[in-house]
Amino acid sequence: MEPVARQTPTPRGHDTETAVLALHSALRRRGVAAVAGDLPDSVRAEHAGRQITVRLVDGQWWRPMPGEPSVTVPVARQGSEDLLARHLVSELLGRL
After folding, report:
1. Looking at residues 62-84, what average pLDDT do you find?
2. Tens of pLDDT, residues 51-70
3. DSSP assignment, residue 7?
4. Are 48 and 92 in contact (CB under 8 A)?
5. What is the pLDDT of residue 3?
6. % of residues, the chain, pLDDT over 90
7. Hey, which bits of the chain come out as E strands?
8. Given a cut of 80, is residue 96 above it in pLDDT?
9. % the chain with pLDDT above 70
10. What gap in Å lies between CA 88 and CA 95, rounded to an integer?
11. Which of 7, 17, 30, 58 has the most crowded CB, counting CB atoms within 10 A?
């Protein structure tokens, strides 16, 4: 009988960090500044004086609802950072 290879589960923090870095990279590739937000696991996209902040919580990217900053809404799942970056850049550039 052959030994079974065991995979060490990836720590949750590593997955989150990878997703945050992937969003930073996707935004920068599209010419938008990406910086760490004020809260943990958040990314602030900035362009021409406009900014949007999203935060990764429990495998979902969330952002404040426009006009209701105390209400957050899910905008993407973890793993779809490229699609999220396209949406954020379109919004920042006024192409919606």
Report:
1. 95
2. 999 999 999 999 999 889 89
3. P
4. yes
5. 52
6. 79
7. 33-36, 42-47, 50-57, 60-65, 68-77
8. no
9. 84
10. 10
11. 30
> From the CB of residue 21, how many other CB atoms can be counted at a distance below 10 Å?
13
Report the DSSP beta bridge partners of residue 47.
50
- For β-strands 42-47 and 50-57, DSSP reports them as antiparallel
The residue among 58, 53, 62 whose CA lies nearest residue 12 is 58
Amino acid at 19: A
Residue for token pair 């809260």:
39
Q: Are 76 and 84 in contact (CB under 8 A)?
A: yes
Q: Tell me the residue type at 78.
A: Q
Quote the DSSP letter at residue 38: S
Q: How many whole angstroms separate alpha carbon 70 and alpha carbon 82?
A: 26
